[in-house]
Design brief:
single chain, alpha/beta, Mannitol-specific EII, Chain A, 3-stranded antiparallel beta sheet
């Protein structure tokens, strides 16, 4: 859930001026998106609890989740598959990948690149066998209306700092509108990558049609998940 300054001021029972001051002082966890501050509900609740601040009942109440979780195939269809993506090292590859992402015009691509690089510097997203799953630490900074999984085949293998020390040739970049969707896609994708036929199609950099067929076959083994609505 993305909260605005006005929302947080109401929920914490403080003025907007105070909220801005806390953010500037680095006291209140916030994200700068297109020159506007956005806040994560769970982080604000935790922040207030640690300081024993009274909060509006609205912040304590979990809202029912109505939107169904997305499938990998729908998210991959939205994100796209790209071949021969150039780059000499990790940061230049991520620069190229961000340029390919199907993002809303208001998303700050420079900020996204910085966030992806920062995430890799914290810990590599290389999961082994030449595959990496670059993503930002918190999906809230992207402000995308629907989940995207973008598959990129690199022009040349790149040292990604993966645990198995193998260079990376395949990137699945995730962009999600919220944390639960992000975690759902990460877990489904990790499961799919355990499938031998799907891994083989990825390793061979197969045609789009073959990759989607492999994804649909793997997804048929999952418990039924309603399609994510197109926005």
């Amino acid at each position: 859930m993305q909260l605005t300054v006005k929302d947080v001021a109401r929920l914490l029972n403080h003025s907007e001026k105070t909220i801005y001051r806390w953010v500037r002082q680095g006291l209140l966890p916030a994200y700068r998106i297109n020159d506007r501050y956005r806040f994560n509900r769970a982080e604000i609740l935790d922040w207030a609890a640690r300081r024993k601040l009274a909060v509006a009942r609205e912040l304590l109440e979990e809202k029912p989740v109505s939107a169904p979780l997305p499938s990998i195939s729908d998210s991959l269809e939205a994100g796209g598959i790209f071949y021969r993506v150039a780059g000499e090292e990790r940061s230049s590859v991520l620069h190229a990948v961000v340029e390919l992402l199907h993002l809303p015009s208001e998303v700050d691509r420079d900020a996204l690149r910085e966030a992806l690089v920062a995430r890799e510097e914290m810990a590599s997203t290389g999961i082994g066998e030449g595959v990496a799953l670059p993503h930002v630490r918190n999906p809230i900074i992207l402000s995308v209306p629907r989940p995207l999984v973008t598959l990129c085949f690199l022009e040349r293998p790149i040292d990604w700092g993966a645990l198995d020390r193998q260079p990376v040739e395949v990137l699945f970049t995730l962009a999600s509108p919220e944390t639960r969707v992000h975690l759902h896609l990460m877990s489904r994708l990790a499961f799919a990558l355990k499938d031998a036929a799907f891994r083989d199609a990825i390793r061979r950099q197969a045609a789009r049609e073959e990759i989607f067929a492999a994804v649909h076959r793997v997804e048929a083994t999952f418990a039924p998940t309603p399609a994510f609505p197109h926005l």
